[in-house]
Write a structure and sequence with these properties.
This protein is an alpha/beta fold and 294 residues long. The protein folds into two domains: 234 residues, Alpha-Beta Complex (Lambda Exonuclease, Chain A); 44 residues. The chain has eight helices and eight strands. The strands form two sheets. It has a five-stranded mixed beta sheet with strand order 2-5-6-7-8. It has a three-stranded mixed beta sheet with strand order 1-4-3. A hairpin with a 2-residue loop joins β3 and β4. The chain is globular and about 75 Å long. The N and C termini lie far apart (52 Å).
């Protein structure tokens, strides 16, 4: 595996976004090149996310078991701590143009008795219908995690994923009148949330299911394995991001952004050059003053 700097970094969320019916190649190109504020991906509020994960940590630390709200969903096994993060949960994909860093940050990775994994992601609300675009995007996010877990050198990984699950959580209106800060007792967290598990193992066994009814994304190869699917998504992302010119737009704001940046670019470059020259003059002046003092 090459140790050279990756030519491109792609997250599990970015790869899953390729399946969105509202996906705009130009917006994606802008996001990777110009780094504007990103469009928020559906996610849990940070306080809820923190408390859920704390409940798992505290329950395992004190009782060597998962909290009741997870066990009640049929989740078994040993949670991996510390949790993988985007800093260490990544692989370098060997593309012909250079290595590409694929990373992610699963909410929970559970080690099963047979050494395989159960990868879990928390979501705020369930899709309104089965096999929806949102469900397929969530599935791809989990599949990218499974792809990384099978390759990353992060103890006790690499390991094969046997189960994938989405856990949808909603706040319960009854039972508590305080704020999130009052829910810091992990043993009672289940009283304040309604949790629903959606197994996603079918996508693990049949990755091509993620591309069903997706007309705007096609693959040159037949999708017969997890690697086939991930490599198809990587190739699509590379085609867009490494394009020397911005691709066609599917959103008005992306066109506007490109026009504004294009108009300002010469002025920005001139300003950067002026600041660089000023910095150089200041450094020379400081050096001259030091030499005179000597």
């Amino acid at each position: 595996m090459s140790l050279s700097k990756p030519i491109l970094t792609l997250s599990a969320r970015e790869l899953s976004a390729l399946l969105s019916p509202y996906f705009c190649p130009l917006s994606f190109w802008i996001q990777k090149h110009l780094k504007p504020p990103s469009e928020p991906f559906p996610a849990l509020p940070s306080d809820v996310d923190r408390l859920l994960k704390k409940s798992v940590e505290e329950s395992w630390k004190k009782h060597r078991r998962l909290p009741l709200w997870l066990e009640s969903l049929g989740i078994e096994g040993e949670p991996i701590f510390p949790r993988p993060t985007w800093r260490n949960f990544f692989v370098l994909y060997p593309h012909k143009k250079g290595s590409i860093r694929i990373h992610g940050e699963p909410d929970e990775v559970i080690l099963l008795d047979n050494g395989e994994l159960h990868i879990i992601d928390y979501k705020l609300s369930a899709p309104k219908q089965a096999n929806s675009d949102t469900e397929r995007m969530y599935a791809v996010q989990l599949l990218v995690y499974a792809y990384i877990a099978a390759k990353v050198t992060l103890s006790p990984l690499p390991a094969k994923a046997r189960n994938l699950s989405l856990i949808y959580l909603t706040l319960k209106a009854e039972g508590h009148a305080g704020t999130l800060g009052d829910l810091d007792d992990p043993e009672h967290l289940w009283l304040h949330f309604h949790a629903q598990r959606q197994p996603m193992d079918e996508y693990l066994h049949y990755p091509s299911k993620a591309l069903e009814d997706t007309t705007h994304l096609s693959c040159q190869r037949k999708i017969e394995s997890l690697s086939d699917l991930i490599e198809c998504l990587i190739e699509r992302a590379v085609d867009i991001v490494l394009s020397p010119t911005p691709p066609a737009s599917q959103s008005d704001w992306a066109d506007f952004y490109v026009r504004v940046v294009g108009a300002l670019a010469p002025h920005i470059e001139h300003l950067k050059e002026s600041l660089s020259q000023k910095k150089t003059r200041s450094q020379k002046q400081a050096t001259s003053e030091v030499q005179r003092e000597r």
